[in-house]
Amino acid sequence: GPCTECSCSSGKEPDKDPTHTKKKENGDRLCVPKIFFGTRTHKQITQISRELKRTAYSYVPMTILSSRDYTCIHPVVSNSSNRNEMCVELLEGKQGRTCSYYHGVHKLSEHHALQSASRMYQAWDIEDLVSLGRKLRACPYFAARELMMGADIVFCPYNYLLDPQIRESMDIKLKDQVVILDEAHNIEDCARESVSYGVTESQLRAAREELDFMVNNNIRQKDHEPLRAVCCSLI
């Protein structure tokens, strides 16, 4: 049966070791690592999954992590400028509405075309997932995340691996896993971007005014005075 604690690839001597875990001497289970394959752009992921399809490893369980910009199929959310916030609001059901596509996620993540057991499984790209999602009225964004559990190889843009906030929100755990970075000479720029933040002078002035107000009204002065000083020096 599939091992719940780690990723399991089918086809390699299933009878001998059905869970694909090795026993360590102290009784801990040693899991087969996942391969995280980071690329610079989403377009490159499409090219790589196309290449994977042509190899003997086309049946290996995989997934592609990408943003809602590429995978949201909700008619209203997908056309909005802030898909992330709108999606979260829908899922929280604040307006009394919810997302029917999200509730159909399992229809997509368990679909035979994405499962290797049926041997119909083939490497896929984002477009394949989205068109199947439309057919099944199921959310590709969350299905791709769910498929990460059983995937042996996970494709994603660099910043999903480099940016700690994205790693956390996507629940990506890299300890003891294999990480491959394609075109790694671009990593420096990507790392710089993930810890950089753009701010305008008017935003700084507005922040300074708010901090002035806090300090003058004795609201956590110790915390706010140094922040005000930073704003002033930047202006």
The largest pleated sheet is described as: 4 strands, parallel
- Total strands: the figure is 6
For the residues shown, what is the average pLDDT?
84
In the CATH hierarchy, what is the class of the largest domain?
A: Alpha Beta
Query: Whole-number radius of gyration?
Result: 22 Å
Question: Architecture of the largest domain, according to CATH?
Answer: 3-Layer(aba) Sandwich
Work out the helicity level: 40-55%
Distance between termini? 62 Å
**What fraction of residues sit in β-strands?**
5-15%
Pfam families: DEAD_2
Keywords: ATP-binding, Hydrolase, Nucleotide-binding
GO molecular function, one term: ATP binding
Protein name: FANCJ protein
Care to describe what's here?
- The protein has 235 residues and is of the alpha/beta class.
- The strands form two sheets. A four-stranded parallel β-sheet has the order 4-5-3-6. The chain has a two-stranded antiparallel ribbon with strand order 1-2.
- It contains twelve helices and six strands.
- Helices cover 44% and strands 9% of the residues.
- A hairpin with a 5-residue loop joins β1 (22-23) and β2 (29-30).
